[in-house]
Design brief:
The protein has 8 helices and 12 strands. The chain is of the alpha+beta class and 250 residues long. The protein folds into 2 domains: 101 residues, no CATH class; 134 residues, 3-Layer(aba) Sandwich (Aminopeptidase), CATH 3.40.630.30. Strands 1-2-3-4-5-12-6-11-10-9-8-7 form a 12-stranded mixed sheet. α1 runs antiparallel to α2 and α7 packs across α8.
């Protein structure tokens, strides 16, 4: 049975895992431990983090039929807007009637994929944790539906608690959402319209990737299929997929 667990148990279950789903859960755990809107649930081979109406579902191995049915029932009764999970788990949920799903590609950075003749900025050239209004001015062009108050409250809190860091370079921005267990998850990449095609976003990612790689950390991102060519040019390679289940009844 999937039941709610406390933060201490969630931290123990999180362990030293470095996959993106664990990083997403771990970032919220570190930032919002003890807050009512951030809760955690566990069942046999299932670990779930809930932040407001968003769920992150991490599973261990291939779930039994009983476990996948239990997870599907949990989704039906818990109330959520979207739930991200691994590829196999998502496919099996689709077979159980959850049809409002979309795939995302997992990418990991490798400095060896940057052509030797292509320059990228030094990490010191990036603006770290600039005024958040400046970050949002860029973000709103790439994420027009992003709610300013929700985003600002979340990122400001996570920056103050040393969970996240925002960066700007040449009209592009990216945010380190979690940096744990020698693994980094980057999201919210966007460029101002006039900066698109200049290489600003690509070089921002390269500078971040090389900086963290020198620290012995893996850098991962999630992206839609149409962005695969961009991330390949930036020095990333595909290593997996996730599925996001949308609850259209919510």
């Amino acid at each position: 049975m999937i039941t709610q667990i406390d933060s201490k148990t969630a931290a123990r279950l999180l362990g030293k895992e470095t996959d993106v789903l664990s990083l997403k859960i771990g970032g919220n755990l570190k930032a919002y431990r003890g807050y009512d809107f951030c809760s955690f649930y566990a069942g046999r081979n299932i670990f779930i983090g809930k932040y407001y109406d968003d769920l992150v579902v991490r599973t261990k191995g291939s779930l039994s039929d009983e476990e996948i049915e239990e997870l599907s029932l949990f989704l039906k009764v818990c109330g959520f807007k979207q739930a991200i999970c691994g590829l196999e788990t998502g496919r099996r949920l689709e077979n159980m009637g959850w049809k409002n799903c979309s795939e995302n590609i997992l990418f990991r950075f490798s400095p060896n994929l940057i052509p030797e003749n292509e320059r990228y900025p030094d990490f010191s050239e990036l603006e770290e944790n600039p005024p958040l209004d400046s970050v949002f001015e860029i973000l709103k062009e790439g994420f027009p539906d992003l709610n300013y108050e929700q985003w600002y409250t979340d990122i400001n809190h996570k920056i103050r608690h040393n969970v996240s860091k925002a960066y700007i370079y040449g009209g592009a921005t990216a945010t380190v959402m979690a940096d744990m267990n020698n693994s980094v998850f980057i999201a919210l990449l966007a460029s101002k319209k006039e900066s698109r095609g200049t290489g600003a976003a690509k070089n921002l990612l390269r500078a971040l990737g090389v900086n963290f790689e020198k620290q012995g950390k893996e850098v991962s991102v999630l992206c839609r299929e149409e962005l695969i060519p961009f991330y390949r040019k930036a020095g990333f390679y595909e290593y997996g997929k996730t599925i996001t289940v949308f609850n259209v009844i919510h």
